[in-house]
Automatic annotation (TrEMBL):
GO terms for biological process: epigenetic regulation of gene expression. Pfam families: Hist_deacetyl. Gene3D superfamilies: Histone deacetylase domain. Belongs to the histone deacetylase family. This is Acetoin utilization deacetylase AcuC-like enzyme. The keyword Lipid metabolism does not apply. GO terms for molecular function: histone deacetylase activity; hydrolase activity; metal ion binding. It comes from Aerolutibacter ruishenii. Residues 28-335 form the Histone deacetylase domain. The keyword Zinc applies.
């Protein structure tokens, strides 16, 4: 299958993140994309550089003022005489006002961010935009008749909400791809999120919509990031009532429990009668992942790919997490290889 990529991903290099009380080197680093690219090239996937797309595609799923914030944040930071990486340190939690965006950059950053683990640097906007372009190009490839396409997105996207960033994510690439499929004439689109972390941003974006089903299998937010969304009683509202399915699983989940959840997810997608599928493909469910706690061996990723392929739907696979950098390429190639063989 075609791999849509962009060299501009490397412009986002956050440096450090706040992790368990310490400033540590970012887990979400440029080398991740390079390892994936090498592994996919080695097995012969066709590489295509993502095309430029209009920014109006981003505003289909994000708030315009939020997109403006991302576009201008680092320039505003530099105008205050600072440089390097931006991390927020105050957030509008309970008892504080959320009805106004502070005029200054520090307050605005805390307003739009939901964690202190997602630095913005000078190249973040360029990279995040290029990442979204990978997803858009892959979606258009599928609209033109390809069975499936893979977007080598970096930075990832599934934590980015309509007007909030965090979890290493700025623009929600999977949501942007799903919306592109809708705008291209697909009436019902399903998003299956198999990243270890709950896809809170995708859930938020489609929460009140009946045309996009969102399903996420993830480590339970009782103990796992993003902690404040992803429980199984979140099912959608309004036109989106019943259109969100969360399948949280405990730390230590093995293949037996994982496949049961995967089959539940696939059954829901079949029932929805989707015309196309977007997969938020995180491979941080791997047993060697440094920030996650499922126990899937590398041999399970081809099985995941084959099961998803069995849905028989036109599919856009969008890269999300995966932080065991040495194995990330093998695990992504495992999913894509088995998917291709099954179709
Ligand atoms: C991104 B993706 C809080 C940061 C905690 C965030 C993990 C984001 C995972 N200071 N870590 O879903 O793989
Ligand atoms: Zn993740």
């Amino acid at each position: 299958m075609r791999v849509f990529h962009s060299p501009l991903h490397a412009r986002h290099d956050g440096g450090v993140e706040l992790h368990r009380g310490q400033l540590v080197p970012c887990f979400e680093m440029p080398a991740r994309a390079d390892y994936i690219a090498r592994a996919l090239r080695d097995v012969g996937h066709a590489f295509v550089e993502a095309a430029e797309h209009d920014d109006s595609r981003l505003a289909r799923v994000h708030d315009a003022a939020f997109v403006d914030f991302l576009r201008t944040a680092h320039a505003r930071w530099r105008e205050e005489g600072r440089d390097g990486s931006m991390l927020p340190s105050g957030f509008p939690a309970r008892s504080l006002r959320r009805d106004r965006v502070p005029a200054g950059i520090n307050g605005a950053m805390g307003y739009y961010a939901f964690d202190a683990g997602t630095p913005i640097v000078g190249g973040t906007w360029t990279a995040a935009r290029a990442s979204a372009h990978c997803a858009l190009s892959a979606a258009e490839d599928v609209l033109s008749g390809s069975t499936a396409a893979y977007a080598l997105c970096r930075p990832p996207g599934h934590h980015a909400a309509r007007s909030a960033y965090g979890g290493y994510c700025f623009l929600n690439n999977a949501a942007i791809a799903a919306q592109r499929l809708r705008d291209g004439g697909v009436e019902r689109v399903a998003v299956l999120d198999v990243d270890y972390h709950h896809g809170n941003g995708t859930q938020d974006i489609f929460w009140t919509r009946g045309d996009v089903l969102t399903v996420s299998i993830h480590g339970t937010p009782e103990t796992e990031y993003p902690w404040f969304l992803g429980f199984d009683d979140e099912t959608g509202e309004g036109d989106g009532a019943g259109g969100n399915l969360n399948l949280p699983l405990p730390r230590g989940t093995d293949w037996t429990a994982y496949t049961a959840a995967l089959e539940t997810a696939l059954a829901a997608i079949r029932r929805f009668q989707a015309g196309a599928l977007v997969v938020s493909l995180g491979v941080d469910t791997f047993e060697g992942d440094p920030i996650s706690a499922f126990r899937l061996g590398a041999d399970r990723f081809p099985q995941i790919g084959a099961r998803i392929a069995a849905l028989g739907l036109p599919t856009v696979l969008v890269q999300e997490g995966g932080y065991a950098v040495a194995e990330i390429g093998l695990n992504v190639a495992g999913v894509l290889g088995a998917f291709t063989e099954a179709r």
